[in-house]
Write a structure and sequence with these properties.
4-stranded mixed β-sheet, about 325 residues, alpha/beta, single chain, Peroxisomal Thiolase, Chain A, domain 1
């Protein structure tokens, strides 16, 4: 390889999304629990969310997002040799949701597995795929974030049931040579963190080993908000330090879509201009691992994110886990 092209990069070739047909509005929720559209919008920015139909599984959502991403990339399942699905709401305890999507796509080659880091899952999966592609072991990856959080919500708990929705998003990554500088297309740097001391702040109160049940999502909202705004910006700063780039260099900031106030405060803390922030939480709610690829797909489809744009991704999830990825589209 010539000196001009000396570093392998993971380049985004396509992006796709799928949202279930059923839309649940704040007004409908106000008939289920003691809340109101005004209360929800003021505190979260969420106006509606999508809910999977009876019998519509996480793998079904993920397959549709994957096919959309493949179509956008002008590729077929035969071109993919790695499938990573980020999810906290798998179809089954096992086999993995990724293998179910692999089978739905008609793939009998390659490798497929799930990755679980809750709302940070897509960034963890993207980082993992990047390592595979950069190593040379694989050529093209489907990285999917897919969730049916409606299955683990306590619909009598107004503090959590207003926040979450279902959906799936996917990107196709392809290994390609780059010059090794910030002008390269593809993933430039990724940074992941976790701190397992915070389980009680955001968790599901069930599981095969602990309770032999699925359980429901439980959250200490104020504590999660404080952590999300106060702590997780370190990985974004690490990405800037690793590349020598700054907030001013960004074209777009695509954070995890959990809460409008968290997004606004995090962007302000990082010095990212509001007009550079992609926000979809109003129509999707918090779709956990699906939220970032859903937002990417929306911004690419409407022409905001264009080839060679510099894009920062950032998320925090239960555990706590958090991470950032800086890439050139």
């Amino acid at each position: 390889m010539t000196e001009k092209f000396s570093v392998m990069r993971s380049v985004v070739r396509g992006v796709g999304a799928y949202l279930p047909e059923r839309v649940l509005t704040n007004d409908e929720l106000s008939k289920m629990v003691d809340t109101s559209d005004e209360w929800i919008v003021q505190r979260t920015g969420i106006k509606e969310r999508h809910i999977a139909a009876a019998g519509e599984t996480t793998s079904m959502l993920g397959e549709k997002a994957a096919r959309a991403a493949l179509a956008h990339a002008a590729l077929t399942p035969a071109d993919i040799d790695l499938v990573i699905v980020a999810t906290s709401t798998p179809d089954y305890t096992f086999p993995s949701t990724a293998t179910q999507i692999q089978a739905m796509l008609g793939m009998t080659h390659g490798v497929a597995f799930d990755l679980q880091a809750v709302c940070s899952g897509f960034i963890f999966a993207l980082t993992t795929a990047d390592k595979f592609l950069r190593s040379g072991s694989h050529k093209r990856a489907l990285v999917i974030g897919a969730e049916t959080f409606s299955r683990i919500i306590d619909w009598t708990d107004r503090s959590t049931c207003v926040l979450f929705g279902d959906g799936a998003g996917a990107v196709v990554l392809e290994a390609a040579w780059g010059a090794g500088d910030n002008a390269d297309r593809g993933v430039l740097t990724t940074h992941l963190r976790s701190d397992g001391r915070h389980r009680s702040k955001l968790h599901v109160d069930g599981g095969p080993s602990a309770t032999q049940t699925v359980g429901h999502l439980r959250m200490e909202g104020k504590e999660v908000f404080r952590f999300a705004v106060g702590m997780v910006t370190d990985v974004v700063k690490d990405a800037f330090a690793a590349t020598g780039l700054t907030a001013e260099d960004l074209d777009w900031f695509v954070p995890h879509q959990a809460n409008r106030r968290i997004i606004d405060m995090s962007a302000a803390k990082l010095g990212i201009a509001p007009e550079k922030v992609v926000i979809t939480v109003q129509g999707h709610g918090n779709t956990s691992a699906a939220s970032i690829p859903l937002a990417l797909a929306a911004a690419a489809a409407d022409g905001r994110i264009k080839q060679n744009d510099l894009v920062m991704l950032e998320a925090v999830g239960g555990g706590f886990t958090w991470g950032a990825a800086l890439l050139r589209w």
